[in-house]
């Protein structure tokens, strides 16, 4: 088997690195879109009250 030229090896390394970077971008994009679509459930005020977590009453912005 003949050895490859350094320039060919360099192009192969660059191609692999670009493919890995693209795969990471896709995975990151997929994870962020799944979070925004319906990732973690949001607790209701009744559920929070069951756990003993009390939310402060909403403040009226006009009464300053």
What do these coordinates show?
The chain is 61% helix and 0% strand. The protein is an all-alpha fold and 64 residues long. The protein is rod-shaped.
Assembly annotation: single chain
Structure classification:
mainly alpha
Radius of gyration: 26 Å
Order of helices and strands: HH
Distance between the termini: 82 Å
Counting DSSP H or I runs of 4 or more residues, the number of helices is 2
The largest sheet is:
none
**Helix proportion:** 55-70%
The pLDDT mean sits at 80
Strand content: under 5%
Report the uncertain regions.
none
Keywords:
64 residues, 2 helices, rod-shaped
Concise summary:
This protein is 61% helix and 0% strand. The protein has helices at 6-38, 45-50.
């Amino acid at each position: 088997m003949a050895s490859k030229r350094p320039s060919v090896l360099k192009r192969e390394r660059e191609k692999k690195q670009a493919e890995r970077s693209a795969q990471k971008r896709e995975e990151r994009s997929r994870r962020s879109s799944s979070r925004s679509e319906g990732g973690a459930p949001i607790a209701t005020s009744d559920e929070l009250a069951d756990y003993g977590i009390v939310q402060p009453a909403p403040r009226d912005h006009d009464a300053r």
